[in-house]
Amino acid sequence: MQILLTGATGHLGTHITNQAIKQNIENFSIGVRNINKVSDTWKQALEVRELDYFNQESMVTAFKNIDLVIFIPSIIHPSYNRLPEVENLVYAAKIANVNHIMFIGYYADQYNNPFHMSPYFGYAERLLASSGLNYTYVRMAMYMDPLVDYLPELAELGKLIYPVGDGKINYISRHDIAKGIIAILSNQNLLGQRYLLSGHTYSMTELASILSNVAGSKINYDPVSLDTFGKMYDEPKGFGPLLASMYKAASMGLLEQHSSDFEKLTGDQPETFEHFLQQNY
Ligand SMILES: NC(=O)c1ccc[n+]([C@@H]2O[C@H](COP(=O)([O-])OP(=O)(O)OC[C@H]3O[C@@H](n4cnc5c(N)ncnc54)[C@H](OP(=O)(O)O)[C@@H]3O)[C@@H](O)[C@H]2O)c1
């Protein structure tokens, strides 16, 4: 089976590509927007194709002789602007006779989820379901990784300010998400299902305590309002309210979701937040 991963030069794609090379996943190639971002090591190990999610023909060409496309969406927002990516994915997959799509989605996608990107994920999954194509839908929980860079700011502030109230959030590392995806690629009988790659669930008080231990200074949970949070992180414009909408979902209990899919797929436990930060901070 010929496999093509899109978004390979991004945060998650880099983890998946490195693990695919390490695990000797057969016939694994990558589709990238900017070939200059691809290291010589990767060029020696993999076939690299060029594609742009907003250029249908580039996707048709990149998908030639590919059986399975693993699609990592971009991070553009709002939802409406991202819709053409998945439309072009389905169009190109049909023209190029791709047999199967693995779509990498996000867990903030319930029908009542206020996250501003939720409409995109709802649309993408329904488009795949109605496309006639074979597909695997992988939802992921929230990344642990950005907290590594954010921790110095929080330590300076002495506060964790996420506007989540008593809500809890399930976190997983990008490394573990990639590990779950590689496990599916390693046993193709696992294709065709809907998965949630989740890790451990924390209240913000628990998270603040972990952050304090790792930073070596006291960080209390002291939430700001959704509006304040949105204004604090509104760079680029619109990103602050988008982030705030995600924390609103958490305050509603919508990001506590957990499944045992990671354990079932990999036979391992996902990394805890404390261990992840100790290794990476
Ligand atoms: N779980 C979480 O907490 C979390 C957090 C943030 C985002 N996400 C989700 O994760 C996915 C993105 O993954 P990421 O974290 O790896 O983000 P990322 O680092 O921005 O990676 C996105 C990838 O998509 C590629 N891309 C963007 N526009 C493209 C286009 N027009 N044509 C072809 N390729 C294009 C980028 O290419 P370049 O390398 O050339 O830029 C990059 O490789 C998104 O679906 C996002 O919703 C999840």
UniProtKB/TrEMBL annotation:
SUPFAM superfamilies xref list: NAD(P)-binding Rossmann-fold domains
- For this protein, the Enzyme Commission number is 1.6.5.2
Molecular function via GO: NAD(P)H dehydrogenase (quinone) activity
What are the protein's UniProt keywords? Answer: Oxidoreductase
- Pfam families from the xrefs? NAD_binding_10
Q: Which InterPro entries match?
A: NAD(P)-bd_dom, NAD(P)-bd_dom_sf, NmrA-type_oxidoreductase
Q: Which residues form the NAD(P)-binding domain?
A: 7-187
The protein's name is Nucleoside-diphosphate-sugar epimerase
Originating organism: Staphylococcus caeli
Q: What is the lineage of its organism?
A: Bacteria, Bacillati, Bacillota, Bacilli, Bacillales
